[in-house]
Design brief:
There is one protein chain. The chain is globular, with a radius of gyration of 18 Å. Helix 2 crosses helix 6 and helix 3 runs antiparallel to helix 5. The chain is mostly helical. It has seven helices and two strands, in the order H-E-E-H-H-H-H-H-H. It has one domain: Cytochrome Bc1 Complex, Chain A, domain 1, CATH 3.30.830. The protein has a two-stranded antiparallel sheet with strand order 1-2. Helices cover 54% and strands 11% of the residues.
Length: 147
């Protein structure tokens, strides 16, 4: 919201996570005008930093939980997605939760849980940056990753 809607720094912005058996990653990507890329990176990193320092408001957390529930239920309308949902759990956790059990776990997540995870993952040594564009000055962008 801050990057695109409030500041108009990106044509689009999204985040996604990938969970693997022994690792994973969170990715944020955005379509940004080359002249505004530094500002966009700063604001994205500021948003990450805020999640370490301030608890996310309950209203925002509930909105995310509702989105996860709705998106999951919609995705489970096809048999291949049901197989992916259940099989992915077996591979990653060796435990299979039915959708309602999964949603109960999601509902238990608190602002303190999110802040704890943010403090674990949003550290300078864990951040990486990839840019596509006419950028040659590596140091210019490396210094931005010091959150």
């Amino acid at each position: 919201t801050e990057v695109r809607e409030h500041r108009g720094l990106a044509y689009y912005i999204r985040a996604n996570n990938v969970s693997l058996t022994d690792s994973g990653y969170l990715i944020s990507n955005a379509g940004v005008d080359n002249k505004r890329v530094e500002d966009a990176i700063k604001v994205i990193l500021d948003e990450f930093k805020k999640t370490k320092e301030q608890k996310i408001p309950e209203k925002e957390i509930q909105k995310a939980k509702d989105h996860i529930r709705g998106a999951t239920l919609l995705s489970l309308e096809s048999s291949d997605e049901v197989a992916s949902f259940l099989g992915g759990q077996e591979v990653l956790k060796k435990e299979i939760l039915l959708p309602e059990e999964f949603f109960k776990k999601i509902e238990k997540i608190t602002a303190a849980d999110l802040q704890r995870v943010a403090r674990e993952i949003f550290r300078p040594e864990k951040l990486n940056l990839a840019l596509i564009g006419p950028f040659k000055e590596k140091e210019r962008f490396e210094k931005l990753l010091k959150i």
